[in-house]
């Protein structure tokens, strides 16, 4: 009898397997709910919201918004413009479905135009913790030979035009190299033989003034004259990709 009474006290009358299955195993994550609220607020205002504006719309404290928005930006779901507003990032556009193209889809025709016009390979690079990875590539359709970069190709972080350009788009740091500082001043960086022997490359960052758009457009060829000629259009392609993510500013 004692055992039965104890069971009733712990489980309650009629508390069978079906009743237990209906109960949530744990309360919802407060951090996740708050993060989704921040995403929802920014998604409804694609021109951008400041931390104070997000706080006002969500009812969250500014400190909480600052932390959550910073994390979401670091993961690519939000992007921070030069004037401090948070806007939808590339990952958020991807989750939104096919109604809006992804950054890779948007920039593919621009990369193809670069490749065809100058007879080299054009690439959109994103950084990872230990390398940069090609997320979109284009090769010339009418060329006898070219350097081939497939989607998913990786390059080391310590050399080459792409890592330098991405670093140049970030806020200045004490350990920036002279090349990074110069690339930040000019808006692009060139290299020769840094990754592939004999190859010339030019890369331009999407970011400007330290906002959170960690990516770059790069053009590479064995001919320096082609790279020199392509440089203005590489910069233009990077600006177009920036405008796609942040809107015209």
Helical segment count: 10
Mean pLDDT: 82
In spatial order, strands of the major sheet run 5-4-3-8-7-6
Approximately what portion of the residues adopt beta-strand conformation? 15-25%
Low-confidence spans: pLDDT under 50, at least 5 residues? 1-23
Encode the helix/strand succession as letters.
HHHHHEEHHEEEHHEEEH
Report the sheet with the most strands, covering strand number, pairing sense and barrel closure.
6 strands, antiparallel
Structural class determined from secondary elements = alpha+beta
**Radius of gyration over C-alpha positions, nearest whole angstrom:** 24 Å
Range of helix content: 40-55%
The CA-CA distance between the termini, in Å, is 77 Å
Quick tags:
249 residues; 8 strands; Arc Repressor Mutant, subunit A; Beta-Lactamase; 6-stranded antiparallel β-sheet; two-stranded antiparallel ribbon; disordered N terminus; alpha+beta; 16% strand
Task: Give an overview in words.
This protein is of the alpha+beta class. The protein folds into two domains: 2-95, Winged helix-like DNA-binding domain superfamily/Winged helix DNA-binding domain (Arc Repressor Mutant, subunit A, Orthogonal Bundle), CATH 1.10.10; 103-246, GAF domain (Beta-Lactamase). The protein is 45% helix and 16% strand.
Outline:
The protein is α+β, with helices and mostly antiparallel strands and 249 residues long. The protein is built from 10 helices and 8 strands.
Q: Secondary-structure blueprint of this entry?
A:
Layout: H1 2-11, H2 17-22, H3 30-43, H4 51-58, H5 62-74, E1 78-80, E2 86-88, H6 90-95, H7 103-118, E3 121-128, E4 131-138, E5 154-156, H8 161-168, H9 178-186, E6 189-192, E7 200-205, E8 216-221, H10 224-246
Antiparallel strand pairs: 1-2, 3-4, 3-8, 4-5, 6-7, 7-8
Helix pairs in contact: 3-4, 3-5, 4-5, 7-10, 8-9
């Amino acid at each position: 009898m004692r055992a039965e009474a104890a069971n009733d006290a712990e489980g309650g009358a009629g508390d069978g397997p079906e009743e237990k299955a209906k109960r949530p195993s744990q309360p919802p994550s407060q951090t996740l709910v708050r993060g989704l609220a921040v995403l929802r607020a920014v998604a409804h205002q694609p021109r951008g919201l400041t931390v104070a504006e997000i706080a006002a719309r969500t009812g969250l404290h500014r400190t909480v918004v600052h932390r959550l928005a910073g994390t979401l930006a670091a993961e690519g779901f939000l992007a921070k413009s030069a004037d401090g507003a948070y806007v939808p990032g590339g990952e958020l556009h991807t989750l939104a479905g096919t109604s809006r193209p992804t950054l890779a889809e948007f920039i593919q025709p621009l990369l193809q135009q670069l490749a065809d016009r100058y007879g080299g390979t054009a690439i959109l690079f994103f950084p990872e913790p230990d390398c940069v990875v090609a997320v979109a590539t284009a090769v010339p359709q009418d060329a006898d030979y070219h350097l081939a970069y497939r989607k998913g190709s990786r390059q080391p972080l310590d050399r080459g035009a792409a890592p330098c350009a991405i670093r140049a788009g970030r806020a200045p740091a004490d350990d920036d190299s002279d090349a990074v500082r110069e690339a930040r001043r000019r808006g692009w960086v060139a290299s020769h033989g840094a990754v592939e022997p004999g190859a010339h490359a030019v890369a331009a960052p999407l970011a400007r003034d330290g906002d959170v758009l960690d990516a770059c457009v790069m053009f590479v060829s064995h001919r320096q004259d082609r790279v020199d000629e392509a440089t203005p259009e590489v910069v233009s392609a990077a600006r177009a990709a920036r405008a796609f993510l942040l809107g015209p500013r």
